[in-house]
Hints:
Organism: Rhodonia placenta
Protein name: BTB domain-containing protein
InterPro entries: BTB/POZ_dom, SKP1/BTB/POZ_sf
Pfam family, one: BTB
Distance between the termini: 26 Å
Domain BTB: 19-89
Number of strands: 5
Amino acid sequence: MATHPRPEYECGDPWIDDGNVVLLVDQSNIAFKVHRGILARQSDIFDDMFQLPPPAAEDDLETIDGCQVVRMYDLPVDLSALIKTLYDGAEFQNRNALDFCHVAGILRLSTKYFIEHLRLKAVRFLTETWSCTLKGHDKMLELALQSPTVDGLSYPYVHPLHVLNLARETDVEILVPSALYFLSFYPLSDILRADHPKLKIDHPSRPSSELSPRDVQAYTLMFQHRIDLIMDFVRRVVGQRASSEGCQNDQGLCSKAFSRVSTTLSRAWLIRTGALHFMMQAVDELFNDSTICTVCRRAFRNDVYKERKKFWDGLPGVVGLPTWQNLETRDLESGALGSSRTKKPSRKVVGRSWWRIG
């Protein structure tokens, strides 16, 4: 068998001395020497790739360090992170924007190479911040209000547009409602300028900083829905509120107080106000208002909790997605990757595009 001249390459991390295959990233020529058995055990794609011989038109076999070369077309930083994670296990953190880029790279390639357990771990980690539950949303917001800035960026250190574009790229719908909700805090003109510091972080794994035409509509729907909720809350839930049964004040006194508070709230919110947080701020404000009796304050608090839950439960439907429960089944349960719209390549496929993973 003829052999090609040894390709030019630079040793990447990891480079395992007793490895038996070299993954060579095309164009950058960064190479990773690894064990084919380790990768094949974790991914059917790698398993199929290593079992198939090169096409007949490519009899000449490239080698590096005595090992077969397989050319790859991924970002070197993503491929490096994936390989190290497959060897050492996944450890995701949220200390800064670069931590998000690391998770993004892992999610991207675990999706591409059908490594389900790793994809699930990445998705579940991201939902700890970009939550599918109201409790998780409130926890994230509390951290955002309390955490110090890192490298000039506030918690959670990543722009919701990057989360949205990563979700679209990897077909993770459960991240979309929360990402769009927080994205709706930003005026469209600011998003289109793409000059927010969080959108300008410099990392190869950073998702796109552009709002796709598809998501312009989704953003608009979420933006309008959030504004409608705030206005309805101020006018109906607070302003038109009658005294509760068992009211301890003189007739009509509490309802007049609610009307007065409604007027104050109508001047307090801004175009970037978060509806869910605004509602809780109103509860805190009214709970310390001695002109409203205890019975009416408690009844108001309970009604606000119900309004917040109703809003949260309906959030996916605003942008045409199924319920949170269906999204959890789709993206957070084992087997979700196998039921994705993207089907795994057949073992019968042989050809350049299959041998040289792109």
